[in-house]
Amino acid sequence: MIPLSTRMRPDRLEEFAGQTHFLYKGSLLYNSIKNKTFDSAVFFGPSGTGKTTLARIVAKEMDAGFVEINASTTGTKELKELIEKARLRFYGLQQETTYVYVDEFHRWNKLQQDSLLKALEEGVIKFIGSTTENPYFSINNAVLSRVRNIYEFKRLSADDLMKILKNAINDKDKGFGNLDIRYDEKTLRILAEMAGGDARIALDTLGFIIDNSDDEPAVTEELITEAMQRQTVFYDKSEDKYNLLSALQKSIRGSDPDAAIHYLARLIEGDGDIKMIGRRLLVMASEDIGMAYPSAISIVNGCIQAAMMVGLPEAKLNLAQAVILLASCPKSNSASAAIEAAIADLNSRKIDDVPPHLCDSHYSGAAKRGHGIGYKYPHAYGGYVKQQYLPDNLYREGVKYYNPTENGSEGAFKKFLEGLDRLYEKDNNKG
Q1: pLDDT in tens, 208-240
Q2: 191 forms bridges with which residues in the sheet?
Q3: 119-157 pLDDT, tens digit each
């Protein structure tokens, strides 16, 4: 039996539900479709939000050839054959542009993605790429530069899903309009809310309930709970991992271990990419904790190595330890701010050479060049002696890149450095 979500797929623009932030009567997208001026585009967002449906509607409204492929099952050879057929239609008697819809476009490598470029430039094909991942990370810039628009599909609201479900119940041709189905608004909304913004889940759950009902079909809360059991157990793995990584870092930076653990769980249940999570945690250890707790990076590195060694599912314990540590310890971005300020100076103005007394003197002829002459070895002075280390112009300006905070261990480092300054001033006053 054909799934209800497939049967109820709209084939007219007026029937399309949701995505009103970019598709409404009078919008540029709506008008471009109606005026048959729609160009290449990328659709991205969660499953069940209408990406494939809209692509098919576009092709139908444009009166153009339409080819639908999936990136996971179509290789470079098949793609080249497809483009060649499109080229024959474009330059042949039909003089027709072919719309190529590529589902899961992010699964293609750079070579496969680049195979589209020439045909796009010639106008032989128009391209609609569909992806659940952020295209700015997953699609080549060369392809993106040839795409007119990028449309972000959002999860459907409960109200959107209510309209879709009611339409399926009442439609006599494709839905259950010929059946006397018992339901009420409250019960149907439960189904709409449990579907998590996914029309496919909502419709197929409804179809499962009706197709397996007794002589008097009904939609009840008990049946919805039973039918949705599987969907509510499993996590949506198509969620944008970059958003989750961002939320994880911001929660750690904000010292909220509960939120941080939540986003770690979503990352683990999603991609489960230990290396990707580990890289971000190591960055946080220096960027957000830094000198406030310098040992954090060693501990986090140990946790990540342990996670890599044991693998999932046990690795979640090692990663959780690292995340809770980072979220719970003092914070300082002074190291990050210091290196960024230093790099900014290098890129914005002329910097004087390394002072001669700091230059390498471990070779014959160094003394003739003045290298190393006048250098004071700090250990010979009890561990510290005041001398110039910065290039001349920065030294004269009194440039400071590192500004320690009072947080955690950094407070002790700050007191130490301030003590050295006071010692120097005291010695100078004596002189």
Answers
A1: 999 888 778 899 888 998 888 755 444 455 567
A2: none
A3: 888 888 988 999 988 888 888 888 888 888 899 999 999
Separation CA 142–CA 146 (nearest Å): 7
Q: How far apart are CA 154 and CA 21, in angstroms?
A: 9
Q: List, in order, residues 6 or more apart from 401 with CB less than 8 Å away.
A: 337, 338, 339, 341, 342
Do residues 115 and 170 share a domain?
no
> Which of the 8 DSSP states describes residue 287?
I
- Do both 387 and 418 map to the same domain? yes
**Is the distance from CB of 299 to CB of 309 less than 8 angstroms?**
no
Host H or E run for residue 341: helix 334-348
Q: Any idea what the CATH number is for the domain that residue 132 is in?
A: 3.40.50.300
Report the domain count for the chain. 4
d(CA 384, CA 418): 13
Tokens, residue 320: 């959780």
Same domain, 145 and 162: no
- pTM exceeds 0.85 for this model: no
Query: Which H or E run contains 187?
Result: helix 185-194
d(CA 164, CA 256): 39
Residue 366 CA to residue 257 CA, distance in Å, equals 55
277-312 in b/e form (b: 16+ CB < 10 A) is bbebbbebbbbbbbbbbbebbebbeebbebbeeeee
Paired strand residues for 125: 98
99 and 128 Cβ atoms separated by less than 8 Å:
yes
Domain holding 385, by residue range, is 346-430
> Do 83 and 137 fall within a single domain?
yes
Whose CA is closest to 193, among 162, 154, 236? 162
The DSSP call for residue 98 is: E
* 123 and 194 housed in the same domain: no
Closest Cα partner for 110 from 82, 139, 146?
Answer: 139
